[in-house]
Design goal:
The termini are far apart. It is globular and about 65 Å long. The protein contains 16 helices and 20 strands. It has about 500 residues and is of the alpha/beta class. The longest helix has 22 residues.
């Protein structure tokens, strides 16, 4: 294959220079321009008429028109869009929606993926990530081979109008991509969108094992399974023995940190580079632009207007927010967005730490509430509470307290969730209870169900019984035992559960 990297670098260099010039007043100017574009378009919608939205580049005036909003505030509007109604939250008819779990009033939420959001945000954001990489590494030859893009699938079990597609964001991006991109990527669209992972994994291996792969893109936990299977099928010791020209992994969705040692074990570390991206269902927000990991440049001109709120105000719709040009380095904020998909002052639930404000670089700090998303499963407390209730009712048992944390994959097994449970009345068969609990959680959370499918990415949860009084003992050790005591139900790491387990073993 001809090395097209020099041509790609020439095409992309201009915007890299523009992005790195977003300093001082330039941050305010570009964000005000984005705000004027968004409000001009939004004023033509049903939402715009209901909220008396007017075209403006005045941040204070904009805040006065619209309160911050969560998904429960827009669910009705979104379902009207899914039903085919036009000009609801964004002009025109929207036919694509990214499905994800995480709300307490329904199994899934559907994030609109409008044509404009693809055109001016998602695809340009991905291009920016590649452009930054090529600028950082002049020796790159990534367009001398093909990129392996790992995506999800569409939900085929929903009753939708003809032409409407609901599925993972990655499925929407792959399905709508410019056909010319298929010349430099694998697998083909049909393979990429297979729904059954038990069928999909062998198909992905077959499509990639003999290809000249130079770059991969996807979620770290998903790709780890694929790479290990390619290595196994090839009879190799590491992935570079199969793909000697592999040079970079564009990753996002979940933290890479728990997986770095595992990737180091299956790659030639002298050849491998890692580029972090912040590409959510709601938009493509940031990409790494420095060789050292730990920060990403916020993409200020890709159709998204950003607001930053102080932490601890998740339930306050009138929370006082700051625009991008007023944030301070070292502070952590809740991120609120307005975007060309009809999300107006939308609280996506992420928190970010401002690393620098000139230029504006951020790092993902976590979620506004407790959750587990170590494998892309997006499990929330309401999921675990409800699943636990259903399983207890079925097995005639009672729980005094519990906490859940991820167990990351190793050479012996895939990752899974570890439940530490203090029983009031234990079940007769703990393993049968664990099976019921796992099935109930799958029924409540489509993302968890997808990762659990055939145990390809995520093994069944495990249960560790806690000694009587363990949680009170742990709370006392933290100085929080009392009337306002709160046990962290979920954590995306093991900082809570490991000390508890240590006390439990003693």
């Amino acid at each position: 294959m001809i090395n097209l990297t020099p041509l790609a670098r020439l095409f992309m260099t201009r915007h890299v220079r523009q992005s790195l010039s977003w300093r001082g007043d330039g941050i305010e100017n570009i964000q005000r321009h984005v705000l004027k574009y968004l409000t001009s378009r939004g004023a033509k919608t049903r939402f715009g008429h209901q909220s008396s939205l007017k075209p403006t580049d005045d941040f204070e005036a904009f805040k006065g028109m619209i309160a911050t909003r969560s998904y429960s505030d827009i669910r009705h509007d979104v379902m009207d869009m899914v039903a085919g109604e036009r000009d609801i939250l964004w002009p025109g008819v929207t036919r694509r929606f990214a499905q994800s779990s995480g709300t307490s009033d329904g199994r899934s939420k559907f994030i609109p993926v409008t044509d404009d959001s693809l055109k001016i945000n998602h695809y340009p954001g991905a291009t920016d990530a590649v452009a930054f990489y090529l600028d950082m590494y002049p020796d790159s030859r990534m367009f001398g081979g093909k990129g392996f893009i790992l995506g999800g699938s569409f939900a085929n079990n929903l009753d939708l109008k003809p032409g409407v597609k609901v599925g993972d964001l990655s499925a929407n991006l792959i399905d709508a991509i410019n056909p010319l991109v298929n010349l430099v990527r694998i697998p083909d669209k049909t393979t990429a969108l297979i729904e059954d992972w038990q069928v999909k994994v062998p198909a992905l291996v077959n499509a990639s094992i003999n290809a000249n792969i130079t770059n991969i893109s996807g979620v770290p936990s998903w790709f780890l399974t694929i790479l290990k299977e390619v290595i196994r099928r090839a009879g190799a010791d590491n992935i570079h023995q199969v793909w000697p020209n592999l040079e970079v992994f564009f990753h996002g969705g979940i933290s890479m940190d728990p997986y770095r040692s595992q990737y180091a074990a299956i790659t030639d570390t002298s050849k491998m580079r890692y580029i972090e991206t912040y590409n959510a269902s709601e938009g493509f927000f940031a990409a790494q632009d420095l060789r050292d990991p730990g920060s990403m440049l916020l993409l200020l001109d890709r159709g998204v207007f950003y607001e930053f709120a102080p932490l601890g105000q998740a339930d306050n719709p009138d929370v006082e927010t700051l625009p991008a040009w007023k944030v301070e380095p070292g502070h952590t904020y809740e991120l609120i967005i307005t975007a060309p998909n009809g999300l107006w002052r939308y609280r996506i639930g992420d928190t970010v730490k401002v690393i620098s404000n000139d230029p504006l670089r951020i790092a993902i700090a976590g979620r506004t509430r407790h959750y587990i998303n170590a494998f892309g499963e997006e499990v929330m407390v309401w999921n675990t509470d409800r699943a636990l209730t259903e399983a207890c009712d079925k097995h005639h048992c009672q729980v005094a307290n519990y906490t859940v944390a991820p167990v990351f994959a190793d050479d012996r097994r895939h990752g899974h969730h570890q439940w530490l449970i203090e029983w009031t009345t234990p079940p007769q068969d703990t393993e049968a209870f664990a099976e019921s609990l796992d099935m109930a959680l799958q029924a409540l959370n489509s993302d968890y169900q997808a990762k659990r499918s055939h145990s390809i990415f995520l093994d069944r949860l495990s249960i560790t019984p806690a000694q009587n009084g363990l949680f009170d003992l742990w709370l006392a050790s933290t100085g929080k035992l009392g009337g306002q005591r709160k046990v962290p139900r979920l954590a995306n790491d093991r900082r809570f559960i490991d000390p508890m387990l240590s006390m439990n073993n003693q």
